[in-house]
From TrEMBL:
GO terms for biological process: antimicrobial humoral immune response mediated by antimicrobial peptide; cellular response to lipopolysaccharide; inflammatory response; neutrophil chemotaxis. The keyword NAD does not apply. This is Interleukin-8-like. GO terms for molecular function: chemoattractant activity; chemokine activity; CXCR chemokine receptor binding. GO terms for cellular component: extracellular space. It comes from Lepisosteus oculatus (Spotted gar).
């Protein structure tokens, strides 16, 4: 058998190598967790468990130049109706009637962009 006894320096080297690898692994895991948190920060999950549009929905025409953003909320466990919320350039949020013909046209146009 050709084995040499482990000297103190070899044991010390192994211990240093092992602690360095453990430190690198810890730093890598920390960086991955921070990256994941950063990516998920911008993604919001609707937490409202109720309908957003309570009451009257706007069916009158709103010119697209006044609309900043349109949010579509499909029907689900939170609400039995599909909801469409238009955010105007003034910052006001308006629930619009999903079946109104102009709403369908505006949504198609915005999806093309």
């Amino acid at each position: 058998m050709n084995t040499r006894p482990c000297t103190l320096t070899q044991a010390t080297r192994f211990s240093l190598f092992q602690s360095t690898m453990c430190g690198k692994l810890s730093v890598s895991v920390l960086i991955m967790c921070l990256a994941l948190a950063t990516l998920l920060e911008g993604k919001s999950v609707p937490m409202e468990l109720r309908c957003q549009c309570i009451g009257k929905k706007e069916s009158r025409f709103i010119h697209p130049k006044h609309i900043e953003n349109v949010e579509l909320f499909p029907r689900g466990p939170h609400c039995k109706n599909a909801e469409i919320i238009a955010t105007l350039k003034t910052g006001k949020r308006i629930c619009v009637e999903p079946t109104a013909p102009w709403v369908k046209v505006v949504i198609k146009a915005m999806m093309k962009k």
